[in-house]
Write a structure and sequence with these properties.
This protein is an alpha+beta fold and 338 residues long. It contains six helices and twelve strands. The strands form two sheets. A six-stranded antiparallel beta sheet has the order 1-6-5-4-2-3, with no helix packed on it. Strands 7, 8, 9, 10, 11 and 12 form a six-stranded antiparallel beta sheet that branches. The chain is globular and about 75 Å long.
Length: 338
Amino acid sequence: MLFNATNDDVKCREPPKQVQMDAVFLIDLRFVPLDDLRADGLPQYDSYGGKRTITIEVADDNQGELKVEIISSQRKDLEPNSKAKTYHLERLYHSWNVGKENKYHRRIMHVREQNGAIVNDVACVQYVYEKEEVQFAMKPHKGSKSGNSVPYTRTKPSVLRNLDKKLSSLGPKDAVSLATQESGGVMKVGCLSEIPRGPRQGYYRKQLQKVSLPSHVQGGEKQDELFEVLLKLKTDKEPFVRKVSVEKENTTIVIASDDQLNDLMKFSTSEIDFCTVQIDPTFRLGPYECTPISYRNLMLKRKHWGNNPLRLGPVLIHYRKDHNTYSGFLQALIDLNP
């Protein structure tokens, strides 16, 4: 379908918005930025399946039909073939729990040539339920302390880029107001992802511009991130990077201070007075997954709420979200503070 999508009449010039049914869309990337497809007006997805790339080979058979063959389950650059062309099929997965034993999946797919160009300037966005279609309610962000706050929607990257341009010459409040007006205003947009979320987002983007850029962004030589972590592991007088594991398909880094390890042992292992340890694998740091452990300090109590404050514990930085990764993280903590 992606190879034969040359008819402009079947392509969408606007991204899908708040879709709650089984559907497939062909998106014309000449009019819609590829990264805008993730901001579809729906709430935050429960799980991120990652970006997967497979290498395929496409050739014409004797009857003029395209024959597609999977060469590798990973990205692989091959030598040009006179009989067939090699492409990379890129897929981005997200899913949402919408009921008992029912999930709602979104898949964003496109095909790239060896030089990086997207075939036919088209992407496919698929929405599909595992079982029957249902109408689900919009949910607030998982980090929201109030259950009745405005449902969270991801802001389109193109909207953020426009906002960043205006922040270079305007204050956050004026920049957000102008960007909202240029998008058509609150009453005319199709969904909230097409406008900035409010002045607070403007202030946050302004602060990002003030942060000093890494050397490779400024034009200098890019540093080896893994080498820097290993160097920190070996040279720090007070240990913070505790363990680095490099495997063929996964890299894990365990970060923990002595205080975090001691508090975790003190407040979660006592048989008399203990707290529940929470592990939250929902954060991302660029291409990495970030899984922190949190616990409650039972020695302190918040004056206003009357409960024990939440404290950040050891953190795992990793690529894969599977049983071996998380069990290895916990085993590393046991080895560090048995």
